[in-house]
Design goal:
This is alpha-L-rhamnosidase. The protein is of the alpha+beta class.
Length: 706
């Protein structure tokens, strides 16, 4: 039999036990099985071993879901961990996001509870469920908060074992998405001592994960570790309400048994620095190491070019993506750790360029769909672990992720099944937006969040999100061979209302959003694009948009052939702008143009699309691979690889050379003018354009100019 089980102390209403529950079972094995599979999950976060060996590479399991409705399990092959005779399975369970009680002395973004930590475990030996009898006690982790930190007292003796409580729990669900795993170990790069006995360890880069402590000292010595992204003017770790949140700290109390190694197990931080006090001896370089964690989505993309600033930006964006690629895509790995939905579609391109996220997004979209309310609303965060108010709960550019992200998944991977699975929910969401519209216009939400120029009307950004969702639903219905006519007609009515309401565009965002939607009359498009260009130039080649307007600005400029303008706005020093972000000393992408807030946000990372799609020229449509590199600025070479395709160009003394490796048919478009030398088997399809099949291809163009 398999059951949810609990710990008696934790199951008492209103109790605050002295430590987290630990569960243990012993069982005898005669002849070793051909296969042993341990199925595990918890309401909370679990850490499990079989005969002292970790059950697998996954950490911080299970992933985010609405824990009151559904909890995800994983199956671990533990065959190699078993031996003949007595075997032991030990599982410690922490509260995680399922139970976030008030912690007055430590930081927390929210409070919530689906109930105390509980465990579900099932062992199958050669496919047959093996009966297990579980005992439970209180372990050595005396405190754990998803936000505020974790304490471990290694002096605690595990005693008072008693039978586990048989109880109930939520429904179980499997997953095909990769788990969170350790992907990199960082060494300390520098150690400072801002006051005697207090040390600050610099791990070199801002990341999400754990710090690992290695120390030796007397029994009962308590070491305190405070993680942070930045230091104050005196060299101490600075935890700020709008940055990492704070106060946050971890403690470890030594057992005094020699060299001891510890890291948190039931929460994670975003950090670069660790401030440590209580060390019994001066630190060594390996006293603190950084354990980088993220969902183990396979890396499939690489980009580099001759311009150091652009390479730095690409690295900042990628690190921020990695730091927030947890069981859902979070906004930041410290202050909130919540699944804000706008980023999963606004920055889809850079995410999918760098990593294979097909299975990851399918599971993520299940979480989004489950958050939809009975009236069709898709809240701004999923899972909806707390209910925010106003635009922080209901913004069309956030909720429309339920429509836009499946469409992007289809465009990237040809995934029709996910479109079909969520099509009814998409209809409910568009119906919800329609019910809120007045004259086919919406007037609620967060506006162009993070904008330098905050004058873009909320009505314009909200209606943009509404129309884009309806336009995309029309495309999806067409692919699914459903009736698309209602959405085509509704799109036309919203577009007409948009044109009437906004006959002029007074901000960078407003003009770009209108052009992106296709609501600008054909006779006016060139003028609106030129108005956008003129405004950028008038601002000193700086952007004034936030995250909603940012992608459209870059895309309409690229579509209009104004890569020169994009180059200038990316590389021009000063605030606000991308070049400014590279001068702040950060090692991942900051939240806002001014560098305030979190230093590990990827919401402004959509410019990476321009690097890969235009500078490197890698473009994917639903049916084709198109390679169309752009030569701009001071670039002399660009190289990019993605999922079996490589584009690399070099420009030397007027000689442009493009090397292509492709595993599928592709269309090649060379830039500018000059005499072309093309491979014999490349099929010309137009001026400087060719069709090629799988293989390696080399194109040379003499007389290249910028």
């Amino acid at each position: 039999m398999t059951h949810w089980i609990g710990n008696h102390d934790w199951e008492q209403p209103g109790s605050t036990p002295a430590a987290l529950p630990i569960f243990r079972t012993t069982f005898a094995v005669g002849a070793l099985p051909t296969q042993a599979v341990l199925r595990l999950t918890a309401r909370g976060v679990y850490d499990a071993t079989v005969n002292g060996r970790p059950v697998g590479a996954a950490v911080l399991e299970p992933p985010y879901t609405d824990f009151s409705r559904r909890v995800v399990y994983r199956d671990y092959d533990v065959t190699a961990a078993l031996h003949a005779g007595e075997n032991t399975i030990t599982v410690e369970v922490g509260p995680g996001m399922a139970h976030v009680p008030p912690t007055p002395d430590r930081y927390q973004k929210l409070t919530r509870s689906d109930g105390p930590p509980r465990l579900y475990a099932e062992l199958r030996l050669d496919g047959i469920v093996h009966e297990l009898t579980w005992r439970t006690a209180l372990g050595r982790t005396t405190f754990s908060s998803w936000y505020g930190g974790e304490d471990c007292d290694a002096t605690r003796n595990l005693h008072s074992w008693r039978d586990a409580t048989i109880t109930d729990g939520p429904a179980l669900s499997n997953t095909t998405a990769p788990a969170i795993e350790l992907v990199e170990t960082l060494s300390t790069q520098a150690i400072t001592e801002p006051e005697p006995g207090m040390y600050v360890f610099d791990l070199g880069i801002n990341f999400a994960g754990w710090q690992r402590l290695t120390v030796e000292g007397p029994r009962g010595t308590t070491i305190t570790m405070r993680p942070g992204e930045v230091l104050d003017e005196n060299g101490y770790v600075r935890q700020t309400p709008d940055g990492t949140g704070g106060p946050i700290w971890d403690t470890y109390t030594l057992a005094g048994t020699g060299v001891e190694t510890w890291h948190p197990k039931f929460r994670y931080h975003g950090l670069r620095y660790v401030q440590v006090d209580g060390l019994p001896h001066p630190p060594r370089p390996n006293t603190i190491e950084g354990l980088v964690l993220r969902t183990a989505n396979r890396q499939v993309g690489r980009f580099a070019c001759s311009n150091p600033l652009i390479n730095t930006l690409h690295t900042l964006i990628d690190r921020a993506i990695q730091s927030n690629m947890y069981s859902v895509l979070t906004d930041c790995p410290h202050r909130e750790k919540l699944g804000w939905l706008e980023e999963i579609h606004l920055v889809f391109g850079p995410i999918a360029f760098g990593y294979d996220v097909a299975d990851y997004y399918r599971e993520l979209l299940k979480v989004v769909a489950e958050a939809q309310t009975a009236d069709g609303l898709v809240p701004d965060i999923a899972p909806e672990y707390t209910v925010f108010e106003h635009g922080f709960r209901d913004d069309p550019n956030w909720g429309s992720a339920l429509v836009l992200a499946p469409w992007l998944l289809y465009r990237q991977y040809g995934d029709v099944d996910t479109l079909r699975e969520h099509f009814p929910a998409m209809i409910r969401y568009v119906d919800y937006l329609t019910s809120k519209a007045n004259g086919h216009l919406l007037d609620h939400g967060l506006g162009d969040w993070g904008a330098f120029d905050e004058s873009t009307p909320v009505q314009l950004t909200a209606t943009f999100g509404y129309l884009r969702a309806v336009q995309t639903l029309h495309e999806i219905a067409t692919v699914l061979q459903e009736d698309a006519t209602p959405y085509k007609e509704l799109s036309a009515r919203i577009a007409e209302a948009f044109q009437r309401a906004f006959p002029r565009y007074t901000t960078q965002a407003s003009g770009a959003l209108a052009l992106e939607l296709g609501v600008v009359p054909a006779s006016s498009r060139d003028a609106v694009l030129q108005q956008l260009v003129d405004d950028i130039i008038a601002q000193g080649n700086h952007l004034t948009v936030g995250e909603i307007g940012l992608g459209p600005v870059l895309r309409v400029l690229a579509a209009g052939g104004r890569h020169d303008v994009i180059w200038d706005l990316v590389t021009t020093p000063g605030y606000p702008g991308y070049a400014h972000l590279t001068t702040l000393g950060t090692t991942s992408l900051p939240e806002y143009w001014n560098g305030h807030g979190s230093h590990n946000h990827f919401m402004l990372g959509v410019v990476d699309d321009w690097f890969t799609q235009h500078l490197a020229g890698l473009n994917y449509t639903a049916t084709d691979l198109v390679i169309r590199p752009v030569v701009v600025g001071d670039l002399t070479w660009v190289e990019a690889e993605h999922r079996g395709v490589r584009s690399a160009w070099h420009l030397t003394d007027g000689r442009f050379q493009l090397e292509v490796r492709t595993d599928r048919p592709a269309l090649i478009h060379l830039p500018h003018t000059g005499s072309i030398t093309a491979p014999q088997n490349a099929e010309p399809i137009g001026p400087a354009s060719y069709r090629v099949g799988p293989g390696d291809w080399l194109f040379v163009r003499e007389g290249e100019s910028r």
